[in-house]
Write a structure and sequence with these properties.
Distance between the termini: 28 Å
Shape: globular
Largest sheet: 7 strands, mixed
């Protein structure tokens, strides 16, 4: 089975990122490399990454830019530019991934498609406990926090791939915390649109432009299970502006991001 690059975005959450990387080490199939897309974290995050780099079994790279506010689109573009594999699985640094997470994504990969997944939301108490103990027992966690998003079944996963949130009002649903695509498809649309500044809609925008370019969407439900460590909601002052950009991408059938990935290549 071919491997992938794992793109992990983070910002000033080294405790969560450390736990995320530990769950990468539990994978049944390791990614070929990991690229940390760091949206301006302090030296504490850089030191954490350096510590993991010493004996991590695959290359672990660190893309960073100065902290100038929430610029997830820009740092993800820089991360994509560093990825050497033809397929990229993308998560956030406050996501912990089931041991079959990468395997599920690789089984589902198919030329001409990108993949959107789900996540299980953890409470503040569950998050604090996991970070304190420093490891994740996924069997125990799945019993403690059962939801449809924590259930893994290959038959249902394949059955729902073209049915779940691929049509109607959910057609453009996407979450950057569990996302996968071919690098050549992202290059075709010039990556993330860096006009998106602040929280919201940059992940849906990239799904919209991929679909406008003829790349079809698959949902990965009952597979690629992951859990989102709790944090307070991000500042949403730019949400309405970003939604307006997203609706323009839909209405104008946009494909190419004018302010995008090509400047890092």
């Amino acid at each position: 089975m071919k491997s992938c690059s794992l793109l992990v975005s983070t910002y000033n959450r080294p405790d969560a990122l450390g736990l995320c990387l530990k769950t990468v080490l539990q994978q049944s199939i390791l990614p070929a490399e990991i690229v940390i897309a760091d949206d301006g974290s302090t030296e504490e995050t850089a030191n954490l990454i350096k510590g993991f780099q010493k004996d991590f079994p695959v290359p672990l790279r660190h893309a960073w830019h100065p902290d100038e506010g929430f610029r997830a689109a820009a740092i993800r573009n820089k991360g994509v530019a560093l990825c050497t594999q033809d397929y990229i699985v993308q998560i956030d640094g406050d996501i912990i991934i089931h041991p079959k997470f990468i395997e599920d994504h690789l089984e589902m990969r198919e030329p001409g498609y990108f993949i959107v997944g789900s996540r299980v939301m953890l409470s503040p108490g569950q998050t604090a406990r996991l970070i304190k103990q420093g490891f994740v027992d996924f069997r125990k966690l799945s019993r403690e926090k059962f939801s449809l998003n924590s259930f893994r079944n290959r038959f249902l996963r394949n059955l729902l791939a073209t049915l779940y949130k691929t049509k109607g009002k959910h057609k453009f649903y996407a979450k950057g915390a569990n996302f996968a695509f071919y690098k050549q498809d992202i290059l075709q649309i010039n990556g993330y649109n860096e006009a998106y500044i602040g929280w919201g809609s940059e992940d849906r925008d990239i799904a919209i432009r991929l679909m406008n370019a003829g790349v079809r969407k698959l949902s990965i439900k009952m597979g690629a299970v992951c859990y989102h460590l709790y944090h307070k909601k991000n500042d949403r002052n730019h949400e309405l502006r970003n939604e307006d950009l997203m609706h323009k991408a839909i209405g104008n059938k946009l494909i190419w991001a004018e302010n995008g990935l090509n400047k890092y290549l």
